[in-house]
Design brief:
Blueprint (H helix, E strand, L loop, with lengths): L2 E8 L3 H14 L4 E5 L7 H4 L7 H5 L4 E6 L8 H4 L1 H9 L4 E7 L17 E7 L9 E4 L7 E4 L5 H16 L5 E6 L7 H13 L6 E6 H10 L6 E4 L1 H14 L7 E5 L7 E5 L16 H13 L3 H17 L13 H10 L3
Parallel strand pairs: 1-2, 1-3, 3-12, 5-10, 8-9, 8-10
Antiparallel strand pairs: 4-5, 4-11, 6-7, 11-12
Helix pairs in contact: 1-10, 1-12, 6-7, 8-9, 10-11, 11-12
Bound molecules: nicotinamide-adenine-dinucleotide, 3-isopropylmalic acid and manganese (II) ion (MN).
The site of 3-isopropylmalic acid has 5 residues, from helix 5.
């Protein structure tokens, strides 16, 4: 039986980079059947939404979803454009957002004197609650008394399961080091609770070196000394912010892959680059597709196709190391398709 993969290219550079991920997966010769859903901000005009009513139902029967990016403020307000993405993560209980950041050979970090693999971290981002809950409201709209509230929500179940997943991840890595990101000096309910759960769970993992770090200090340390991070666990918003930072220190948004994982496999998991639709370069065919290609590798890994995933990762490393085919973000003048073709040709 072929794997049933839903392609959700989205807006901007999303379709450009997803096409290259598909090209590279196809070079692995595994049995995959794709269904493409062209849902994006162009639908907004007609329906006021950027996906059809039944999109969750349509996606639910797939083995996995490969997404490009959502958002184009010329067509739709951003919070409506990205609504399907956030809803899929919650509805399919994709509570783990795994975001590796590695400095590959042939890629230059904006930080001084960094050698290949000096930076090698995995951020485990909570993906279903925290700061991203649709709880709150706006009152007295448009008046001087206007109030907006956005409520953070941290459940014991939600907090414990993401922290446990991070400890399991750390346990299986060489350095076995886990940093929990908090702001418990200021957020005395949510983050003090997060810390409490973190140190409770830590008792089950005496083999893991566990510590916590305030998010402002973590932002500073990711620039000052990113080598210190191995596995990082963070709430939804902190994880979002720190993974753009982690991406840039390993060379840019074009390299950062991610997986929205439902570990129980009750629902499909979803794979996507960390970057957005990049309106500043969309339609020019110059986006770096490596993040999307590596997201495809994460997807194959999750599906149990370890050989194919490894082949893609090796092909990417060879491609980067060789450095003759580079998109403009790396100082070259190759196209998105050139990069995809070069990586596909390196798959044996
Ligand atoms: P962005 O990640 O789209 O772009 C930030 C910068 O990085 C831009 O200069 C862009 O050109 C560059 N960049 C991003 N990906 C690149 C690639 N593959 N190759 C080369 N350069 C790349 O972030 P933004 O500008 O803040 O957001 C643009 C839109 O994307 C917004 O509508 C936002 O809501 C949306 N967004 C969507 C997702 C998603 O769908 N997962 C994620 C982030 C942002
Ligand atoms: C990401 C994106 C999304 C997020 C946006 C588009 C809602 O920035 O996946 O990193 O904040 O989760
Ligand atoms: Mn983000």
């Amino acid at each position: 039986m072929p794997y049933k993969i839903a392609l959700y290219p989205g807006d901007g550079i999303g379709p450009e980079v997803v096409a290259e991920a598909v090209k590279v997966i196809d070079a692995c010769n595994i049995d995959v059947h794709y269904t493409t859903f062209n849902w994006n901000t162009t639908l907004y005009n007609k329906t006021g939404k950027c996906a059809p009513e039944n999109y969750l139902e349509l996606l639910s029967s797939f083995d996995a979803i490969l997404l490009g990016a959502l958002g184009n403020t010329h067509n739709a307000p951003d919070h409506i454009a990205v609504e399907p993405l956030l809803t899929i993560r919650k509805a399919f209980d994709q509570y783990v957002n795994i975001r590796p950041a590695m400095l590959f050979p042939g890629v230059e970090s904006p930080l001084k004197n960094k050698k290949p693999y000096d930076i090698d971290m995995i951020v485990i981002r909570e993906n279903t609650e925290g700061e991203y809950t649709a709880l709150g409201g706006r009152h007295y709209i448009g008046t001087p008394d206007e109030v907006a509230m956005q409520i953070n929500y941290f459940s014991r179940k939600g907090t414990e399961r993401i922290i446990r997943y991070a400890f399991e991840t750390a346990r299986n890595r060489k350095r076995k080091t886990l940093t929990s990101i908090t702001k418990s000096n200021a957020l005395k309910y949510s983050m003090v609770f997060w810390d409490t759960v973190f140190y409770e769970v830590a008792k089950d993992y005496p083999d893991v070196i566990a510590s916590s770090m305030l998010v402002d200090a973590a932002a500073m340390n990711m620039v000052r000394c990113p080598e210190q991070f191995d596995v990082v666990v963070a709430s939804n918003l902190f994880g979002d912010i720190l993974t753009d930072l982690a991406a840039i220190v390993v060379g840019g948004m074009g390299f950062a892959a991610s997986g929205n994982i439902n570990p129980t496999r009750k629902y499909p998991s979803m794979f996507e680059p960390v970057h957005g639709s990049a309106p500043d370069i969309a339609g020019k065919g110059v986006a770096n597709p490596v993040a999307a290609i590596l997201s495809g590798a994460l997807m194959l890994e999750f599906l149990g196709e370890h050989d194919a995933a490894q082949k893609i990762k090796s092909a990417v490393v060879n491609h980067l190391n060789d450095g003759t085919v580079k998109t403009p973000d790396r100082g070259g003048n190759a196209t998105t398709a050139d990069v995809g073709t070069d990586i596909a040709q390196r798959i044996q």
